[in-house]
Every structure is written in structure tokens, then in C-alpha cells.
Amino acid sequence: MTTSTRSHKVQKVLERMGKKLNRQMFGSLVACVHCGMCTEACHYVLANPDDPTYAPAYKADRIRKFFRRHYDGLNLGRFFPWWVKARSLYTDEELEELKDIVFGKCTNCRRCSVNCPMGVDYATFNRMARGLLVSVGIMPEGVAHVSKDQWEIGNQMGVLKEDYLETLEWMSEELQDELGDPNAAIPIDKKNVEIMYTINPREVKYDPRSIADAAKIFYAAQESWMMPSEGWDMTNFGLFSGDDDLGGAVARRVYEKAVELGVKKIVMSECGHGYRSTRCEGPNWAKTDVAVEMESSVLTMLRYVKEGRIKVDKTRNTESYTFHDSCNNARSCGLFEEPRELLNLVVSDFREMYPNRAENFCCTGGGGAMSMSEYTPERLKSGKIKAEQLKATGADTVVTSCHNCVDGLTDLIKHYELGIKVTQLVTLVANALVIEKKEPASKE
Amino acid sequence: MAIAELGGKQIEIDEDGFIQDPNAWDEEVAKSLAGTEGVAELTEDHWKVVNYLREYYLEFNMAPMIRKLCKTTGFKLKEIYDLFPSGPAKGACKVAGLPKPTGCV
């Protein structure tokens, strides 16, 4: 490709694209027949019916046109660009425009992907396009900030090790007080245990109640568990920024700690993108096999109830509840039935939201959107459909197994004045726990 | 970026309503911001939280851990949420004139 009329950044983006075109990407880039199914599927389109630039096929074509010019295989775009609407990229301004599309007009929720009859996974190549831009330093400020913290400090909120440990100690003390048992502490770096519990830094930085709730459940189940002093952040901005190297480095920290401490299983707290990144995508990004089992805490808690390891009293959760599927948990990782099964075990009044499971609409906070303030007005507007869905359930509280969704939904509920509360399964399970008084003399 | 009228002044805010220049903050601005976060009146307890957050931010250029906030002010975690229904990150930090916290919040 000639370089004379192209900016250096554009040149780098085009070169890098060639290295990112795996079969899935290539198929998605060539297969679109512009049938319009994706248009109906996208929450941005549904909230902006008069603006065609939100249509997934339209957004995808902004990427396709330079793919066709350089990489379509048949060289049609190279020799007959007018025929296949191929056009190369030339200027940094064009890259900035692309940034506003791939970061600002799509949350990578994959609802269009599952509704495409041709199998085009737009969200996945939208992520690839993000990665191309990030490789030349073009990204929203929030993404840059968080990525830097994850590279340098090892977690997405720049939490220092001593602060993390002090917070766990604090939660241990609260729990010991509440349960009247000095053994109710959170074990740190304990070797050869069953479970290493990993979290979202948001929990330790701003709201550690969910850590205390989880600890209480592990305590009640008499689980052999611990939290690691490092490698505890299972979130991964590599998923949002499209930077596979960052994704691999972050995931590897978790895997390596688990192996070092000889644990059997990594359990991840309720975080959709963290679950997908660590369990589903991380081994590919890190180019490594992971010999440790990985599980969402939703499954762990469900197992405890079903196996009788914990007792729950559903009458303690007295409100009406609906469930919001996180895109990453549900659409991308197939976690549909387990959260509902668990929810029905800990509440009496569950009301399904429609559509749901793989067809659920994004909370609008997906794809790292919560950290990109510049697009917040468009994001809130795109939440119209979700707000209507929520309202139609008539529930007092919406339950979700994702921290991003907690914040995305909280924003929508405030913006659309819905007056609905947001919570997670761990909180409801902890609240329903029936803990019997400890036997005064234990055998060991 | 947009301009909002807060505490009788024209102040630049981001798309999530957080003020951009910490120097533009004063008590009147805090009162206006509190209104947007479901806090009708800033009591002495609110000010204790807000003042600590602001002092910490001006010194370290970041929001403190919730642990530090509770330890220094003496409030329980639950009490912080009672004071600021939208939580320490989006509620209390906003009222104290801090920028929007980064990451999944």
C-alpha cells in the first residue's frame, strides 16, 4: 500500500488490520447482505429511528470500506473500488470519526450478532476496530486512564495493595462482629484451597458490602476459600479497548496467582465482562492453557443452596424482583437459567422481563461505556428501550449479575425516573442466609 | 462539555454532571450538586464527608478508598449510603467537586 498520502497513524492501522483478520473477522466482514435484521436488534437504532448512522450494518460498512480496499481477498476493492464501495483511509480526522462510531455508537452487546442470519458478528469486529485505534493512541480518555492503571498498578481503579488488604481486613472485622465468630475472617493467600475468589475493583474501592456478603456465604457453606493479595482483579479493559495484549496480561495475573497458590477453582464475583474476559477470552489473549477451573459466583451460590450447604429463607427478601441479563454473561457466555434458578430460591416474587436471555437489551453501560463520559447523553437516550422494559415488569427491584449493569441501570433509572432499586444476587443470597449458631465444641 | 448554573455561577460540567475545574467549587456549588444527587439538604454529617473527599482529592489527585473515608469520618458504610443515596463514587464525590471516578462506575 502506498504511504505518500496517508498519515503515519493510518498507515499503522491498515497494516495492523492485516494481522487481526482471523476467520471469524473475515467472515463477518464479507458476509453482510444488508438485510436489516441487525437494525431491529440494536438499542441505539430503536431509540434513534430517524438516524441511519446507528444501524449496525451502516457502522460496519465504515470499517468494511477500508477492509475491502486492502484485504478482501478477491482484490475487487483494489481494482474496482467504485463497484464494492471500497475506500481507503487517509487522515487522522478519519480515525477520530471512526473512534466516535466504534466507542460511542456501540456497546459491543452482540444483540445484532445473534440476530444476523449471515452470522456477522459486528460487535467482535467493532472491538477489533477499537483495538486498531488504541494501537495508535486514539481512544476515549477514560479508556486510556483505566487501561494505564490496569497495565501499571494491576487493577482498573489503581487500588494499592495495602489499601486492598486493609479493606478486606475491615470487612473481616465487620463480619466477625456480626456473626460473633472470630473464624469468620477472609483468608488471604491461603494455599491449596478449593476456591480463589476474585472481584471487580469497584467493590473494594467504593462498595465492599458485596465482598462481605460473599464472605458470609463462603463462611456459611464452610468453604475452603481465600482471596489473593495480587491477581484479584478479574475485570479486563482489554475486552473494551480491543487490546489483546492488555487482555492477556490482565488475565494472566489471575491465572498465575491461582496456579502459584495451588487452588482448584477461580470463582469470579458477579461481573459480566470480567467473567467473559477471564473465563472465555483470557486464555486466547494470554496464549496460555489454564489448568484451573473457572466459575461465576452465581453457579457457586446455586450449588451451595442445591447441595444443602447453605440454608436460605426466601421470605426475607420481601420485594418484587425482575432479572436483567448481562450481555457478556448471557449472550456471550450462556449464563441464562442459573441466575434465574438461584433468584427463585431466594425471593418469592420474581417477574420475568421481556425480551430476555440471549435477546435481552443492553443496560447501555456495556463495552466500557460507563467510563466514556463524552458519550453519556447518547447512551442515556439509547436506554429508552431498556427503561420501557424495566417499567413493564412493575418490579420494585432489578437484579443483575454484573457491576457494569448495576451502574448502567442505575443511571437509566435515574434518567427515566423509574424509581426502581438495583441489586445483585450475592446481596439477596446473603440476606436470605439462615446461619445456625456454631456448635460450641468443634471436632478439630 | 456543557455549562451548568451551579450555586449562582456558570460552571463547566462533563456529560455525567461532574464539575471539571476543582477551583470552581465552593459550598454553594456543593449545595446545587447535592440537589442533583437526591440530597435535599447538606447537614453537618454531609459536610464532614464532602470536606474530607475534597481535601483528599486536592492532596492526592484521586478519590480516596471507601475504607479511608469511613475510617477518617467515623461513619459506617451504611451511613455513607444513607447520607448519599447514589453512593460514595457518583454521589458524594460529585458533590465534593471531584471528577467522575474512572472505570466500571
Q: Using CB atoms under 8 Å apart, which protein chain pair has the greatest interface?
A: A-B, 36 and 24 residues
Largest sheet of chain A: 4 strands, parallel
Mean pLDDT of chain A: 95
The share of residues in helices of chain A is 40-55%
Q: Which stretches of chain A of 5+ consecutive residues score pLDDT under 50?
A: none
Key features of this structure:
heterodimer, A: about 450 residues, alpha/beta, Fumarate Reductase Iron-sulfur Protein, Chain B, domain 2, Rossmann fold, 3 domains, B: about 100 residues, mainly alpha, Arc Repressor Mutant, subunit A, 5 helices
Structural account:
The complex is a heterodimer of chains A (444) and B (105). Chain A is an alpha/beta fold. Chain A folds into three domains: 3-139, Fumarate Reductase Iron-sulfur Protein, Chain B, domain 2 (Orthogonal Bundle); 149-306, no CATH class; 314-432, Rossmann fold (3-Layer(aba) Sandwich). Helix content of chain A is 51%, strand content 7%. Chain A is built from 23 helices and ten strands. Chain A has a four-stranded parallel beta sheet. In chain A, strands 7-6-8-9 form a four-stranded parallel beta sheet, sandwiched between helices. In chain A, strands 5-10 form a two-stranded antiparallel sheet. Chain A is globular. The mean pLDDT of chain A is 95. Chain B has a two-stranded antiparallel ribbon with strand order 1-2. Chain B is built from five helices and two strands; from the N terminus they run E-E-H-H-H-H-H. Chain B has helices at residues 27-36, 44-60, 66-73, 77-83, 87-95, and strands at 2-6, 9-13. Chain B has a single domain (2-95), classed as Arc Repressor Mutant, subunit A (Orthogonal Bundle), CATH 1.10.10. Chain B is mostly helical and 105 residues long. The chains are: A alpha/beta (444), B mainly alpha (105). The A-B interface holds A 142, 145-146, 149, 156-159, 163, 166-167, 170, 200-202, 204-209, 235, 271, 273, 370-371, 373-377, 403-404, 407, 410, 414 and B 14-16, 18, 62-63, 65-68, 70-71, 77, 86-90, 100-105.
